[in-house]
Each structure stands twice: as C-alpha cells, then as structure tokens.
C-alpha cells in the first residue's frame, strides 16, 4: 500500500496554501480574512506594539500549518489568542475606555441616584399664591433690578439675564413659615423648577414673611431656538407660596406615567398584532422546505429572505425618525416603526419554525395529490401555530421595551415624556418613569414567559 503523500512542508510559510492543500478550505478562507483584518486594524490605529500581535498571529499559524503538514496534532490556539489580543486592544482604544471616569465624575450622577430613592409618587392638595416677575432673555441693555408688588413684594436683582447668569431674589409680605417654589417659565409656557445641585432650590419665608434666594438663570430654550441677535424673549420667574390643605394623593407625575405606560403597552400591542398578521403569511414564502421546488419559488424564497434580513438590520429608532417625519409626532409613528421592524423579525423566526416542521404529514398529503395551499393548511399550519403564538407574545414583550426608546425621537408613549423630564432635569419625575417602566416590563416578562411555557 502506497504511503500517503503530503504537501511539501514549505507550504507552511503561507498557511492559507497549506490549509488549502490539506483540504481545509474554510480554514484557508478564515486565515486570509483574519490576516487582512488584523493588518487593516493595526495600520488604521498605527501603534507599533500592535504589530507584535500580528506577528504572533502569523508565526502561530505558520507553526500550526507546519505541524499539520508533518502529520502532527494541530496547535492553533496561541495564534487565535494573539489575534483576539489585537482585536480587543484596538476595541479598547476605539471605545476610549477610562476606568477612572465613573469615580471622578460621580458627582454628576449623584442627583439621579438620589432621585431614585425619592420618586415623585405622592402629592398633597395645596393652595398656591403666585407672583410673576418678567425677565428678558438675553439682556439688550445694562441689567437693572425689577420689583413686583401684588399684595406680596418680590425684588429680582436683574430684570434681564441669559442662561447661567447669577440672580438674587428677595421678598417680603409672604405667608410666614410657608415653603416657596421657584419656577422658570419660557415664552411658550413650559415650566421648569429652579434647581440647586439637581434638586429643587429650598426656599421658605421666615417668621416675618421675608426670604432671600440666590440661583443661576436656567437654560429654558433648546439650543437653536434662541432669539435672533439684537432681540430678546420674555420669560417669567414665578414664586409659588404653597400651603398644604389635604391628605396625600397620587402625584401628577405618577398619574402621567400610568397613562403613558398604558399608551406604551398599546403601541407595542398593536405593532405586534399587525406585524403577526403580515409576517405569518410571508413566512411561508421564506421557508426553504416549501419554496424550494422550482426556480420561480426559489427566487421568491431568496427575495423574502433578503427583505427580512435588510429590514431587520435597521434599528427601530431609525424607523421611528423616518415615520415621525412622515406621519408626524405621536404614537402612530412609534407604532409604525415597531410594526415594520417586527414584521421582519417575526417573519425570520416564523420561517425557521416552518422549516423545522415534521415532513411526514407534508409528504403524506402531497402523495394524495393535495395542492400546495391544502398542504400548508392541513399539514403545516397545525404544527406551527403554537410556536407562532409563543414568538408573538415574546415579541410583544420586546416591543414594550423598544417603544420606550422610540418615544425619545417623538414616537409617543412614556419615552417621549421621559425625554422631556431628562431635558428639564426633573430627576424625581425621571425616577418615577424608570420605576414604572421597570414594573411594567417585569410584569409583561412574567406573563409572556408563562404563556410561552404553557403553549410550547
């Protein structure tokens, strides 16, 4: 019996050639791809130290190829570790990881952490006396103090300011010992609380009805909406004297979170329902076992697969931006964005369920002369319905979480309100929304898990 002929060991100097000669074609392709990727990444970043990793990868694969050509046991893991080291080193640098930043900048996160322990859940009925002081933003001339008297008297150190300017407020004739709230109102009527250290500025009239408070003028107008040069806008500083006149009740933030979470769940439910109705029939066109019989059906199969893959590759957030521009702000845009993405995601999952059915009933009906539609109706559908329902419920769970993010671009639901609270630094309201989202997601996760367990 003739001895087995092996390729020359010199092939090891080019591992791809050695792997190809030994019949490991996929390994040869992988070697070429990884080598080009490593060289490209290191050339992009330009660090000489990274070339050491590339050299280790090359020497490691040469040694592995030499061992294979010699009939010895392969030894590829040192080269793989070297390639991974290069990839992670480049990734570390690209992501600009700074392990000290969370500790150095912890103070910026403190207001959010404190707010999570003090969510805006309950409020007390109050009686309010409001005094308004007009403020021009920005100043068109030298700032002058401004005084307002309406039973109570308040004096602001400057009648004009711009964001970040220090202001001092003094008052007298206010109800003794009553807490005061300071609110800034922009030209379109949006209110935001005057904050200090991320929390509402504490102000209270003394026993004689006097108070004094210092603060910075807030940024009440988004960048890009400031008045043209040489012009100003009229803002108002509101002083609220607040008296408690009743027992606790749900806060406005809590009621709004409950309403918006209901809207969020509804958006996800409708998006999932419409997606199932569209994806279910399309999935049969993307199943190889049903569409592999002839050239036209194979073309339909590849077309549907390409459609699902392309649409799935686009993030729902991008669809959200597109539909907000198309149909306007609101829940409808968010529902459409989730629906389109869910059609592709569910279509892919449903088609894979169809491809893994038991072929026995299909072959039996086909042998009796049944049409393709009859085969699908009586042999395929009964097998896939439980899995379809399971994936649909799971997708609804996913869409509830996605709809929160869609709201950040104007797609309605709790995300839209949450983005406004974050912009206004309303940390306690943000904490209420986060708690509401977490509770709803946990409840839906439990429900969907139970439904899927019982069905499957």
TrEMBL record:
Membrane topology (UniProt): Multi-pass membrane protein
Domain ABC transmembrane type-1 positions: 261-448
Compartments reported by the entry: Cell membrane
One Pfam family this sequence matches: BPD_transp_1
Gene Ontology cellular-component terms listed: plasma membrane
Keywords for this protein: Cell membrane, Membrane, Transmembrane, Transmembrane helix, Transport
Signal peptide: none
GO MF annotation terms: ABC-type phosphonate transporter activity
Transmembrane spans: 27-44, 75-95, 265-287, 317-340, 398-418, 430-447
Similarity section: Belongs to the binding-protein-dependent transport system permease family.
NCBIfam families in alphabetical order: PhnE (TIGR01097)
Protein name from the UniProt record: Binding-protein-dependent transport system inner membrane component
Source organism: Thermoflexus hugenholtzii JAD2
């Amino acid at each position: 019996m003739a001895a087995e002929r092996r390729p020359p060991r010199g092939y090891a100097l080019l591992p791809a050639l050695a792997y190809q000669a030994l019949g490991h074609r996929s390994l040869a392709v992988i070697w070429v791809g990884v080598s080009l990727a490593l060289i490209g990444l290191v050339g992009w970043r330009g660090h000489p130290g990274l070339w050491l990793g590339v050299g280790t990868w090359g020497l490691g694969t040469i040694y592995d190829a030499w061992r294979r050509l010699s009939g010895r046991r392969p030894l590829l893991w040192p080269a793989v570790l070297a390639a991974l080291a290069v990839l992670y080193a480049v990734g570390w640098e690209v992501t600009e990881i700074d392990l000290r930043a969370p500790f150095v900048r912890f103070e910026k996160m403190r207001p959010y952490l404190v707010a999570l322990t003090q969510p805006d859940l309950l409020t007390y009925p109050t009686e309010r006396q409001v005094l308004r002081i007009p403020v021009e933003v920005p100043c068109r001339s030298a700032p002058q103090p401004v005084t307002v008297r309406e039973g109570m008297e308040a004096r602001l150190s400057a009648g004009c300011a711009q964001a970040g300017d220090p202001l001092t407020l003094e008052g007298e004739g206010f109800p003794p010992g009553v807490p005061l709230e300071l609110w800034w109102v922009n030209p379109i009527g949006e209110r935001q609380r005057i904050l200090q250290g991320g929390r509402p500025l504490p102000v209270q009239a003394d026993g004689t009805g006097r108070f004094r408070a210092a603060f910075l003028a807030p940024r009440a107008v988004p960048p890009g909406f400031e008045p043209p040069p040489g012009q100003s806008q009229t803002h108002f500083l509101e002083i609220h004297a607040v008296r408690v006149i009743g027992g606790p009740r749900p806060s406005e933030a809590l009621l709004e979170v409950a309403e918006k979470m209901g809207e969020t769940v509804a958006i996800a439910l409708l998006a999932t329902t419409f997606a199932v109705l569209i994806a279910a029939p399309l999935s049969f066109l993307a199943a190889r076992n049903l569409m592999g019989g002839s050239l036209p059906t194979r073309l339909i199969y590849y077309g549907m697969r390409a459609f699902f893959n392309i649409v799935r590759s686009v993030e729902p957030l991008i669809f959200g931006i597109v539909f907000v521009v198309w149909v306007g702000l609101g829940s409808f845009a968010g529902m459409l964005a989730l629906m389109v993405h869910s059609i592709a995601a569910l279509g892919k999952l449903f088609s894979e369920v169809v491809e893994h059915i038991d072929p026995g009933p299909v072959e039996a009906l086909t042998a009796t002369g049944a049409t393709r539609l009859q085969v699908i109706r009586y042999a395929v559908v009964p097998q896939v319905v439980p899995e379809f329902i399971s994936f649909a419920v799971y997708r609804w769970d996913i869409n509830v979480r996605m709809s929160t993010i869609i709201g950040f671009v104007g797609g309605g639901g709790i995300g839209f309100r949450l983005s406004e609270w974050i912009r206004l630094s309303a940390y306690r309201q943000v904490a209420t929304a986060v708690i509401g989202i977490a509770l709803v997601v946990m409840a839906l996760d439990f429900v969907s898990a139970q439904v899927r367990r019982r069905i499957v």
